[in-house]
Amino acid sequence: MSGQPNGHSTPPKVDRSNLIPFSSRLKEGRALALDVWTIFNAANLPPHCINLGQGYMNFAPPKWVTDAAEEALNTVAPNHYSHPRGRIRLREAIKAFYGPQFNRELDVESEILVTSGANEGQYSVFTAFLEQDDEVIMFEPFFDQYLPSVTFNGGKPVYVPLHPPKDSLENPTSNDWTIDIDELRRAVTPRTKLIIVNTPHNPVGKVFTKSELEAIASIAEEFNLLVMADEVYDCLVFDGKEHVRIANLPGMWDRTVTVGSAGKAFAATGWRIGWLIAPKSIIQPTLAASTRIIFCSNSPLQEAAASGLEQAKERKFFENQLAEYAERRAIIVDAFDKLGMKYTLPHGSYFVLLDISNVDFPDNYPFPSSVLGRGRDFRACWFIAQEVGVSSIPVSEFYCEEHANIGEAYARFAFCKDVDTLRAAAERLQQLKKYLK
């Protein structure tokens, strides 16, 4: 008799790899899809490739800020839980630094909340205010974390695209990406709860004008919408443009939460220290959510961020940093000028959108499966990374499927890198000439 000893047959194998079904919200938020950051990760690109894709710096925070972090680590209290609102020193520093910018005396007990990065702060706002199927309007292209943060909290994204510059424009700027206010108004329904306004904008670099923000504010007032002002790049505004805070417009303080970031301000993206500034009616529910999500944020690095804000004005830190970023921006756009390629000159943030619609690559190029089936920009960016040795991010990732064709014409290049790296990238990019139609 065949089978096991003593006449026992082999039991059939049971697949136990997916016993418990995961939540549908992961699918709705595109969280399970192979994301662009994984595809264009350094591990998947040639070893020599210069990474201008991901928006993190390859230089250290200012030494006087890291010295403050070291001092905090060597002190007992900052190594333990902070108050869920944030360490009082940081809240006081935020009040002193930002209060004049909001034209008000900020209350450190009720109008400021320290969060574990800007992203967690935004997530906590969604948790605090969204009911199931509430709609959230976001302008496209949008920072990709918005989508899962909204859907994980029961919200439904509603997309309103920024309209790219007309083809006839020879030297477009981020200001040429425009809002159709009538289109925005039509996007509002009885289920609309919130609108996200990201200025300066990632990835376009658009600094929303006062008139644009006034039009958005008018709609928010008319339909009683909460406004999330994602202003993490507020310290990077070029060309004499004015960063207008929508919370400062008439009637808008009461319905606006403004998001800030120590990571963007002090080249410390891994510290995960952010903050929210808003009236008590918004901060208190958000605090209730944030306390249950994280309880509190990283204590010693809150002390370091506080030190940064306390000393920034005296050291003229943000003025000097802006000049350094202007130099970096010039290096990368000069490279595009030499190529004769069209790009969007950003007035804010540290990203440039390059028009890659005329990059010619063979259809039978050995693209990985992760790139095949995605937008043309995924293939173009992969080709440029492999053949030229400079990585970027395909912009269709920041669109819904319906509008992805708008993003397919662009690649996002980050210039938050040191000057030597950018010069090396600029030199390599000249090889693109032989691949242009």
Automatic annotation (TrEMBL):
Domain Aminotransferase class I/classII large, first and last residues per copy: 48-429
Superkingdom of origin organism: Eukaryota
Gene3D superfamilies for this protein: Aspartate Aminotransferase, domain 1 (3.90.1150.10), Type I PLP-dependent aspartate aminotransferase-like (Major domain) (3.40.640.10)
InterPro entries: Aminotransferase_I/II_large, Kynurenine-oxoglutarate_AT, NHTrfase_class1_PyrdxlP-BS, PyrdxlP-dep_Trfase, PyrdxlP-dep_Trfase_major, PyrdxlP-dep_Trfase_small
Keyword hit for Transferase: yes
Pfam families associated with the record: Aminotran_1_2
UniProtKB keywords: Aminotransferase, Pyridoxal phosphate, Transferase
Cofactors (names): pyridoxal 5'-phosphate
One GO CC term, this protein: mitochondrion
GO molecular function, one term: pyridoxal phosphate binding
Entry similarity comment: Belongs to the class-I pyridoxal-phosphate-dependent aminotransferase family.
Name recorded for this polypeptide: Pyridoxal phosphate-dependent transferase
